[in-house]
Amino acid sequence: MPFIQNSESDRQEMLAAVGVRTMADLFEQIPAELRHNGPLPIDAGLSEDELRAEMTELASWNTPMAAGCFLGAGMYRHFIPTVVDSLQGRHEFVTAYTPYQPEGSQGTLTAFFEFQTMVAELMGMEIANASMYDGCSAATEAVIMASNLVRNRTKVVVSHGVHPHTRRTLETYLKWTEMEVVEAPLGADGRTELGDLADDNTCAVLVQNPNTLGVIEDLDSIAATTQAAGAISICSAYPTSLGLLRSPGEAGFDIAVGDGQCLGTAPAFGGPSFGLFACAQKHVRKMPGRIVGETVDDKGRRGFALTFQTREQHIRRAKATSNICTNNALIALRGAIYMAAAGPHGLAEVATYSLAKAQYAAKALGAIPGFELPYKDAGSFNEFVLKCPVPAARVNKAIDAVGMIGGLDLKAWYPELGENCLLLAFTETTTRAQIDQLVSALTNLAAPQPVA
Amino acid sequence: MNKDTLLFEKSRPGHRTLRLGKLDVPAADLSLLPKGSLRTKAPVLPEIGELDLIRHYVLLSKKNISIADSFYPLGSCTMKYNPVTNEAVVQYPGLADIHPEMDAGRVQGALRIMKRLEDGLAGITGLPGVTLHPAAGAQGELTALLVANAHFEATGQTKRTKVLIPDSAHGTNPASAAIAGLEAVEIKSGKDGLVDLADLESKVGDDTAVLMITNPSTLGLFESKIAKIAEIVHKAGGLIYMDGANLNAIMGISRPADFGVDMMHINLHKTFSTPHGGGGPGAGPICVTDELTPYLPSPRVVEEEDGLRLDYNAPQSIGMLRGWPGNFGVLVRAYAYLRRLGAEGVKRVAENAVLNANYIRVKLNKAYHVPYDRMCMHEFVCNNKHQREKGVHALDIAKRLIDLGYHPMTIYFPLVVSEAMMIEPTETESKSTLDAFIADMLMIAEEAQSDPDKLHAAPVTTCVGRLDEGRAVREPKLRYACYKD
Amino acid sequence: MRPDDRKYLSSHEWIKINGDIATIGITDFAVEELSSGNEGDLVYCDLPELGRVLETGETFGEIESVKAVADLNSPLAGEVIEINSAIEDHLEILSQDPWDRGWMVKIKLSEKDSPELLDLAGYESSLEN
Question: Which of A99, A108, A272 is facing B330, going by the closest CB pair?
């Protein structure tokens, strides 16, 4: 039997020690009528080689992004240095539990203390926690935290430019509370129009930078307007962009969140990723999630431990700041290794390369007759909307025909944009040849069709 | 050489690991970005070369206790062997390098893995509606409570606002209830460690939404009156939610649907062998009855004539709780594990987990007080009653175990046993490992009598001793001070 | 020795009444339970704002140790007129002298209720259970 080491004779000895005869006798607590004696609808087990063959086949039914793929929309294909897989893959990190016993967990704890520092630096904030599930849940937890910081206000203003999954997650969590979500629209230039939506009943304003249409927001003005209304300003930032773009902290935000997949983890069909969460130290008692702190041991040596644990569910139960327990530690560790491998200059390089590829593509695509870049004036980072002369689905088919994967058809997420808008993402892994091929595929599509 | 420096202390200007090749397009034109949109201050990240980076993390890894190096009988956490094959499989480009917004036709393999895993979990639990969406057990709990909310709203039962939770439950249960906008009401444990039926009957009523029950309980006991409990709650119109943290003990032996469970979550990082990773990622699928299936979160995996696809628009769904379909990488590992086990293996897992736990129990129940000393499931709880008068606490016993090369058991949980020590060996441990652990635990019991200070001083073999956790709160240092002010 | 010049709650608060002013604190037992006998383990105490009007039994604050947290409940109704801010930064006072220097809040009693409070013997017998 796979993974069970004891032999039949081991088992017999152990059964005798316990004082029973058969395995079934061990389950005397379960009333006979509640036992399941029929077969399970599960196939027979596989050996390791059989499993690898099956998984290889299943994997072959999927198309990897390596061929050229212009999907982003919150999950990006960035280069992952080998050290990330190699170090994260160490058994001592992979198979350890949550570091509740600090003396035997200094590896994980030290790595998370460093992680918190790097996330705080990236976000331009004072402190960060040791990770959330992903960007959507981090943003949602930030709103819940804001509602605890600013009591007796029930309105949450969320930009329409925030990722639809984040908006839907927020709605799911807030539906059963007093809180009400109001959306701030996007202007013709693609930027959030906060107007006078932040009022004296508003506890939080949530924006995303760049927003889902790829547009760079005017962060300073949003943070200032929010603050003037006495509400908590929350910015969800794309960590890679922070190698170049203004950080939420610099712009004056109270809470910064983000999704860490871009920091050293493959998209993997949507997860696991991890969420970044940063804020001012004065708010630490209202923060969700695990936090590692520095202290000393009985001999005065530096050591690290989980701290402010009374905020958490295992102690404060119904009054906890969040119900989160297991987080996404191992993926956050990948993020830490990635950030350390990149350093400030590597991160800036990844950001400027991604920007350069997107600018190269935008220039060429915008020049094809019939194609437009509707939000060109507002400015974008590595992703932008391309308005096509034909439905985006048809454009994607044309890209498919040249062996690449197109962009995101915005019809489902932003129906008001119609059927012709495509969201295209570029990273340092996108090659010039792929972009040129994309441009030529779209040029051919725009050209008058020859009469058959 | 000081092996305890932080990355920031190792940092040297100009050092770097990640360097990209030559840019194959014209350089970025920053003037195209809006004014004021650039960073004015670069983040102070470490600057470190590849070899030094590797040494840093390898040295850190050696400061961890892990399943790979030590027996890890951490009760309630199911620290079983995490198959290395599965770590290799998830790196296949066809499983890692795929985007969740690809057309369904390009990801049939990914969707098939999800579908088959759903089917397997449905078979094991007897509950046909499965979602793999929740990111972890706690989110699975919340998902289920929101499903209950949606069900009661759809059926006009909006006065059902109370969640009954036994006092031995995990802290996530009441915390999840609070987020779902529900009120947690505690149900007492009886003298036998099981739910006190009289207390339950006195608290159940037409305001009851859900009873959250952990079965087997956190005391390692099967709630033998579970069918009666379910009947009481169902009669009052409430739903039964099972915290599936301890499914490892009963899978293949008893199906939760058969004892009245309407909804449950499964921790894939416990029962289905996906690694704990120092605290995650997990995955917390939930399984529900047919009646509750329409409310499951989005997206759902749906099968149509031309194959599988993700449906983000189920009309009665409670919505999304995170981005994308789920922690796919974790789901792949769980699927691979289930495929290795097969139907027969699933049952063997439960049997061997229960045998291993009982074997330790009968060997330790004289040296340590076992408050519910009868046949247990996959874990049992003992405490320091026999050591207390020597001033030896559960914490001291746990710390001494570290010196002897173990990760300690869970301590101070469940709350219903004073100074609880909860031991869960899992099925993957060999008898020889258990025998060595038993011998060491017996030695510690002797030391508690003869040399209690040895226990108070432990651990002494680790890179740090007991930490001043009070100071970590009173004088918080939550990040490295990157600046000299 | 616990003082018998005051009344108790089974949730381990004490209240000492002097005319229409009452002083509230927590017992040595509560301090010991929270801190496991290690005064450095008490880490945080959240006291109410002046002027807050408390109902009988209302939670007016919290006290935290490294691994536990307890609500502070007001045995009687009244308005908060003074808080002992000295303990916020020096929680060790609670371990050293919970009965006098470790007081937490003073309230001006409102007359509307007279719930049943425990005397010393009643409190101590509640500890037995």
Answer: A272
- Kindly report, residue by residue over B226-245, the tens digit of the pLDDT: 999 999 999 999 999 999 99
B315 shares a domain with B366? no
Q: Which chains touch B (3 or more CB pairs under 8 A)?
A: A, C
- Tokens of residue B283, six digits: 């995955």
**DSSP strands (E only) in A83-231:** 127-128, 155-159, 180-184, 202-209
Q: Is residue A120 in some structural domain?
A: yes
Tens-place pLDDT, residues B261-305: 999 999 999 999 999 999 999 999 999 999 999 999 999 999 999
Interface touch B343/A44, C-beta < 8 Å: yes
Which tokens belong to B357?
Answer: 């736990």
H-only helix segments in B368-423 = 394-403
What are residue A192's DSSP bridge partners? A186
Look at the block and give the residue holding tokens 């007016």: C60
CB contact under 8 A, C65 and B412: no
Residue B128 CB partners (closer than 8 Å, separation 6+): B122, B287, B289, B290, B293
SS (H, E, C) C19-62: CCEEEEEECHHHHHHHHCCCHHHEEEEECCCCCCEECCCCEEEE
Is residue B341 within 8 A of residue B272, CB to CB? The reply is no
Residues 92-131 of B with CB under 8 A from A: 92-103, 106-110, 112-113, 119-120, 122-124, 126
Please name the chains neighbouring A, where neighbouring means 3+ C-beta pairs under 8 angstroms: B, C
Chain A residue numbers touching C66 (CB-CB < 8 A): 309-310
Is residue B263 a contact partner of residue B287, using CB atoms and an 8 Å limit? yes
Asked if B324 lies within 8 A of A271 by C-beta distance, the reply is yes
pLDDT at A446 exceeding the cut of 80: no
Interchain pair B258, A111: CB under 8 A: no
Domain identity same for A287 and A428: no
A42/chain B closest Cα distance in angstroms: 5
- Amino acid at position B40, single letter: T
What does DSSP say about strands A255-259 and A232-237: parallel, antiparallel, or unpaired? parallel
CA C9, C12, C17, C20 dihedral sign is negative
What CA–CA distance (Å, rounded) separates C6 from C29?
Answer: 15
Q: Which amino acid is at A295?
A: T
CA A289 to mean position of chain CA atoms: 16
Chain C hits for A148, CB-CB cut-off 8 Å, are: none
The distance of B328 to chain A (nearest Cα, Å) reads: 5
Strands (E), A283-433: 292-296, 302-306, 383-387, 408-409, 421-425
pLDDT digits (tens, 9 = 90+) for A254-286: 999 999 999 999 999 999 999 999 999 999 999
Kindly indicate the confidence band of residue A208, based on its pLDDT and cuts at 50, 70 and 90.
Answer: very high
Task: Please enumerate in sequence order all residues whose Cβ is within 8 A of that of B103, keeping only pairs 6 or more positions apart, or say none.
Answer: A396
* CA dist., res. B145 & res. B184, Å (int): 12
Among the candidates A280, A314, A338, a domain finishes at: A338
On whether residue B399 sits in a domain, the answer given is yes
Show the domain range for A167.
82-338
Grade residue A295 by pLDDT with cuts at 50, 70 and 90. Answer: very high
B412 with C66: Cβ contact below 8 A: no
Residues A290 and A381 reside in one and the same domain: no
Question: B259 to each of B129, B287, B435, how far by Cα in Å?
Answer: 17, 14, 35
Q: Which of A377, A357, A124 is nearest to A237 (CA)?
A: A124
Asked whether residue A316 is assigned to any structural domain, the reply reads yes
CATH number at C100 reads 2.40.50.100
Quick one: which of B352, B54, A306 has its CA closest to C67? A306
Bridge partners (DSSP) of residue B300 are B311
Query: How many Å apart are CA B33 and CA B276, to the nearest integer?
Result: 42
